[in-house]
């Protein structure tokens, strides 16, 4: 037993309290929260109080993607589920910052900090990764989720999925960021579906994004273009690599 007047007793007691507190953190209940988004039927699951800002950005992304696709004739899914989960993304290959899991019907994205660490030079589209680019990345994945429920074909091509996702990502991005990305791009817009290539997308996704966005912008009937993508017109078999 420690006597109150001995200085080392106070030290022992202090260390015991610190140890007890750290044990409480270690074995205490894991943090888990759901953010129900405003203005869109979506929910963001996250597992650290530090991620509440990322969760709010994810909600903004879901709303922007749903509004854009809804305005372009898509049925917006009844509910969009998003999880901020670094571990789940790590199980994918190196370059994955987010995925849409069709089986789970869930969008899974890394946290903003984890994305920044994972990106080469901390940049996306050649710009320093920031909250706006994080929001655009989530919008891309949410677009995959909404598109999956709207395809008129059973097995849409990866190109078809990515066309819609990148159009949504750039169309819903803050103009200040989008203008910088388009200004620094050294590629021209695709002029037809037949020019689009999975190989090119894999090798240079940022340039692919700019090229499909240019194709979309140039269309006289943009809703018809997206409808054609949903109908399977942009298929693997139409590709000339
Ligand atoms: Zn994608």
Q: Could you write a compact summary of the structure shown?
A:
The chain is an alpha/beta fold and 241 residues long. 51% of the residues lie in helices and 11% in strands.
Outline the secondary-structure elements.
Layout: H1 7-27, E1 33-36, E2 42-46, H2 52-71, E3 80-84, H3 86-90, E4 98-101, E5 106-109, H4 112-118, E6 123-124, E7 127-128, H5 131-148, H6 158-171, H7 175-184, H8 198-203, H9 205-218, H10 222-230
Parallel strand pairs: 2-3, 3-5
Antiparallel strand pairs: 1-2, 4-5, 6-7
Helix pairs in contact: 2-5, 5-6, 6-9
Bound molecules: zinc ion.
Zinc ion (ZN) binds at residues 140, 144, 162, 165.
CATH architecture: Orthogonal Bundle
Q: Termini distance?
A: 79 Å
Shape field: globular
Indicate the low-confidence ranges by residue numbers.
1-10, 17-26, 237-241
- Average pLDDT score: 86
**What amount of the residues lies in strands?**
5-15%
CATH class: Mainly Alpha
Q: Biggest sheet: strands, sense, closure?
A: 5 strands, mixed
The DSSP helix count reads 10
Classify the secondary structure makeup into a structural class.
alpha/beta
How big is the Rg? 23 Å
Total number of domains: 1
Identify the bound ligands: zinc ion
Q: Roughly how much helix do the residues carry, as a percent range?
A: 40-55%
Question: What is the H-and-E element order?
Answer: HEEHEHEEHEEHHHHHH
Strand order within the widest beta sheet: 1-2-3-5-4
If you consult CATH, what is the topology? Neutral Protease, domain 2
């Amino acid at each position: 037993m420690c006597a109150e007047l001995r200085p080392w007793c106070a030290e022992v007691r202090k260390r015991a309290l610190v140890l007890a507190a750290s044990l409480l953190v270690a074995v205490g209940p894991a943090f888990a929260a759901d953010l129900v988004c405003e203005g869109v039927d979506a929910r963001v699951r996250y597992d650290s109080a530090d991620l509440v800002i990322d969760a709010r950005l994810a909600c903004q992304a879901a709303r922007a993607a749903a509004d854009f696709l809804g305005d372009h004739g898509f049925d917006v899914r009844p509910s969009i589920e998003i999880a901020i989960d670094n571990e789940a993304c790590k199980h994918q290959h190196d370059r994955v910052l987010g995925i849409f899991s069709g089986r789970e019907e869930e969008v899974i994205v890394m946290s903003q900090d984890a994305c920044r660490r994972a990106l080469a030079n901390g940049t996306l589209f050649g710009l320093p990764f920031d909250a706006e680019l994080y929001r655009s990345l989530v919008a891309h994945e949410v677009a995959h989720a909404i598109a999956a429920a709207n395809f008129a074909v059973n097995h849409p091509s990866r190109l078809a999925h990515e066309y819609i996702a990148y159009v949504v990502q750039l169309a819903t991005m803050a103009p200040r960021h989008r203008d910088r990305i388009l200004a620094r791009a050294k590629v021209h817009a695709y002029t037809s579906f037949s020019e689009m290539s999975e190989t090119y997308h894999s090798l240079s996704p940022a340039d692919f994004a700019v090229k499909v966005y240019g194709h979309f912008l140039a269309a006289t009937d943009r809703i018809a273009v997206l409808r054609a993508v949903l109908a399977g017109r942009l298929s693997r078999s139409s590709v000339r690599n």
